Amino acid sequence: MSSSPITPSATGRFEERDGTAYVVFERRFAAPLEDVWAAVTEPARLARWIGTWAGDPASGEVGFWMTAESPDAPRESILIDECRAPSRLVMRSARPDDSSEQWTWQIDLAEADGVTTLTFAQEMVDVTLAESVGPGWDYYLDRMVAAETGGDLDAIDFDDYYPVLAAHYRAGLT
């Protein structure tokens, strides 16, 4: 994968998928599809930029720890609705504001001319959540780019993303 400088900016856009609002992000990697798939699915690769998981994905559920925020992050249950390696992964988990509700994440990968495009989408129907979740995914996906390109993850500071980028995501749902 190639390296490029990271300048915090709001890259998410809103779109409707099957009648539900999603915030959608894209990142491009000069790497084969299978390599980018590994970066979002293999625990050791995932741990470099966001967290790790354990369990048997074939069971439809794994435990996830968002260790980038804290080394002793609480376990979250991630339900796997669709896994078509190496191009599509659809998951659900409890929403942080209401554990009785779930939200969905969709990861799609496509490769053309040696470049793999990662499209990440998260169900997002709440303006208050969008204000923090949008900047959060810009932050984590920039960390992914840095992890996969040999960049300096310590140079990526969440304070550069939030609250600076919140207005973009608030405006997208209002």
Word description of this protein:
By secondary structure, the protein is of the alpha+beta class. The protein has a single domain (13-172), classed as Alpha-D-Glucose-1,6-Bisphosphate, Chain A, domain 4. Helices cover 26% and strands 34% of the residues. It has 4 helices and 8 strands; from the N terminus they run ββααββββββαα. The chain has an 8-stranded antiparallel beta sheet with strand order 1-2-8-7-6-5-4-3. A hairpin with a 2-residue loop joins β1 (13-17) and β2 (20-29). The termini are far apart. InterPro entries: ASHA1/2-like_C (IPR013538), START-like_dom_sf (IPR023393). It comes from Nocardioides euryhalodurans. It holds the Pfam family AHSA1. This is Polyketide cyclase. Residues 31-146 form the Activator of Hsp90 ATPase homologue 1/2-like C-terminal domain.
**CATH overall fold name:** Alpha-D-Glucose-1,6-Bisphosphate, Chain A, domain 4
Please tell me the total number of domains. Answer: 1
Rg from alpha-carbon coordinates = 15 Å
Task: Report the uncertain regions.
Answer: none
Strand content: 25-35%
Q: Strand order, biggest sheet? A: 1-2-8-7-6-5-4-3
CATH architecture: 2-Layer Sandwich
- CATH level 1 name: Alpha Beta
* Pattern of helices and strands: EEHHEEEEEEHH
